[in-house]
Amino acid sequence: MSSSSTGPAEKVIQAARKLLHSLVNSGETRLRLAVIELQEERARLFSLLILTGIGIMLVAFGIGMLMLLVIVAFWQEHRLLAIGIASGILLLLGLLVLLRVRAISREPSLLRSTLARFSEDKQLLDEYRIDHDKVGEPREER
């Protein structure tokens, strides 16, 4: 028996260390991905808040212009057209921004990539387990 050979217990310990090392590396990668996704979500929410504020402000200006239109309704005719067009444009822009905010807020994005990676990992582990449960059967080539 040579001193360079290792026994079965030593091989099991080395295999366990390799497995643990792989799990830690995989976990670290997934955690980094989750952190990046959380940072992206924070930026998306900030943009959402800014767009919401702009939309609310434009709608408020539009309502103000409509109120001015009602007040001035009994003045000369040319002012009415200008105020009506201005208020219509402001209301339209405000509503478009608010519709965009609504569309952005409905997009699922929180940890989407992380969850997809975990699903892939689970699928690969299931395939690996199934392959190793078939002891004595030839493996299929991929």
Automatic annotation (TrEMBL):
What's in the keyword line of the UniProt record?
Membrane, Transmembrane, Transmembrane helix
Q: Which domain of life is it from?
A: Bacteria
- Fetch the Pfam families from UniProt: Phage_holin_3_6
- InterPro entries, per this entry? Phage_holin_3_6
**Residue intervals passing through the bilayer:** 48-74, 80-99
The entry's protein name is Phage holin family protein
In its UniProt entry, the species of origin is given as: Kushneria aurantia
